[in-house]
Amino acid sequence: MPNFPASFLLNRDYGQLAVSILFIYVAYRLFSYRCQLPPGPKPLPVIGNAHQMPTLCPEETYQGWQKEYGDIVHVRIFGSNMLILNAFQPAHELLEKRSALYSDRPRFVLFNELMGWYNASTHVQYGPRFRKHRRFIHQTFNEQAARSLRPIQEREALTLIRGLMESPEQYSQHIRRFELSAERAGSLTVQSGTPASTLVDFFPIIKYLPEWAPMAEFQRNARVVKQAVDDMMNVPFETVRDQMKAGTVSSCLTSRLLELFGESITFQDEEDIKGTTCVLLSFILAMVLHPHVFEETQKEMDQVIGVGKLPTLEDRRRLPYLECVLKEVYRWNPPVPLGLPHRLMQDDIYNGYYIPKGATILANIYAMLQGCSDPKTFRPGRYSEPESVLDCLDPQEVVFGFGRRRCPGRYFADTGIWLVVANLIASTNIAKAQDEQRREITPEVEFKTGFVRHPQSFPCSITPRSDEMRNLIDKYCDSDGSA
Fold first, then answer.
1. 72 touches 83 (CB < 8 A)
2. In Å, what is the CA distance from 417 to each residue of 154, 155, 338?
3. Domain boundaries of the chain, sorted by first residue
4. Which residue numbers belong to the known binding site?
5. Is the distance from CB of 218 to CB of 55 less than 8 angstroms?
6. Using one digit for the tens of pLDDT, what is the confidence trace for 67-88?
């Protein structure tokens, strides 16, 4: 072997290093050229797109971006990547088909603090603990298991309707009665903004600021909201458990879960089924604004079930127009318009776009359901008319989320909504309220911005269809439900 001088070997090493660096640079440039980030609004240095992120009705702003940038929109907020999916196809491809990569949740600081989830020991990321919780919820709320809870749902639906008959002006309170203190907690949480809408989410260090410090207003709000959320979660659960021990409890979902799983269950083990209140309020508002739709549903109900009778879940397949009405309610005002955010667990590529690990993924359900013809019009017939049925995405495929993070209580929630709506149609008349001069009041179509898209309070008239129906509801509510 030739005896090369040390300087030659040293130069050779530098040469190899230079070639390696050049190779890496060229490969990076090729990769960057072929796999760019998805398009989006132009960011500023350091803050990125933070100044462009909406705090009011973000789903509508993101839908507007769809027209300019396409179905996938990328934004950067203080160095954090976020993708907004405005169409069903990319959401289905990424969150469903690639759910193993997209099933984690980002840690939004303020939202998690409010819900008591920020601590690493309680934050359920995708993994063994998540799968354990998911398995428990699935065993309780899957389509087959939820059938055992139907008697409770049927009874509660009729109890709700009796309350609406007795004091219809309090319709909103009756719908929210299960939540006890949740109305205050929910409204405060909504006011605190959607996840990723506050500065602390992108600068977590400022959560340690004292309440009196500048930029620490979120701390003062969070303390008030967290107490309301804690009361919402703990008071009803503890009350039911104490009543069970005393032998005075009435049958309800919580008592049913305690009977099935005993003291091993805690409130944190229960999955919150969100959006039911929103859907029911949206249905009532839609019927007030579109009396011809309500008349059509009553006509179908009378023909299939009979006048003076109440429907059961066994009748659902025989009421196709009612099914179209429910789908249109879901589409017209999706309860959680941006769903719950997902987090990508490793780098991915989709349609030539590079999606970096750790990116937050938002599915804009609102935009997906607005992608049909004449989207602002409430028209249930779009799901049965041959010329328009192919133009419509089935809302029930998207309103409960995507992939392994899809709402596990969707069957239970959908069943409860159907029972209330069907029995309202059979037993009551829903119409516009009247003022002192007996003039009809047409409510404005307005929604509260936030995590859940609730309709703003509106006047309406809810009356029994007949004394016979009022007596029938009373008979069911005062008996064991077998009347």
1. yes
2. 10, 13, 21
3. 1-34, 35-478
4. 407
5. no
6. 999 999 999 988 889 999 999 9
Q: Which residues are annotated as a binding site for heme?
A: 407
Of the listed ranges 237-246, 288-297, 306-315, the least confidently predicted one is 237-246
pLDDT winner (highest mean) among 150-159, 166-175, 422-431: 422-431
In the block, residue with structure tokens 């439900």: 481
**pLDDT value at position 359?**
95
- Of 158-167, 209-218, 281-290, 307-316, the least confident: 209-218
Q: How far apart are CA 389 and CA 387, in angstroms?
A: 6
pTM of the predicted structure, to 2 decimals: 0.76
Structure-token match 């059979």, residue found:
426
Q: Structurally, what CATH architecture does the domain formed by 35-478 represent?
A: Orthogonal Bundle (1.10)
- The amino acid present at 139, given as its one-letter code, is Q
